[in-house]
Design goal:
Length: 95
């Protein structure tokens, strides 16, 4: 993608920052929590703590290319929703 500003910082700071041209999504990956899977297309499905368009940070599950300049559709979950999700999974002995 043209026009992406990308910044990778050491531990403790925002991991990746990017802003796309033409008013598309701006994001800051505040914390890379970890990979979930690696489909055969070379991308990685990840759980991250991310800020989209200067909003409140959310937990985010989606696929990313290797250098985080492109991403697929995903699901965002607020901190409160993550607590409920965790309780639901634990109450059903999912783990």
């Amino acid at each position: 993608m043209d026009g992406i500003d990308k910044k990778i910082e050491p531990e403790g700071g925002a991991a990746i920052t990017a802003k796309e041209e033409n008013g598309l999504k701006k994001f800051d990956i505040y914390k890379q929590i970890g990979p979930i899977s690696r489909p055969n297309n070379g991308w990685t499905k990840e759980l991250n703590y991310i800020i989209w368009d200067d909003r409140e940070p959310v937990y985010d599950i989606r696929t990313w290319n290797e250098d985080h300049t492109a991403y697929g559709k995903g699901v965002t979950v607020t901190a409160g929703e993550m607590v409920v999700l965790k309780e639901l999974l634990q109450s059903r002995n999912m783990f």
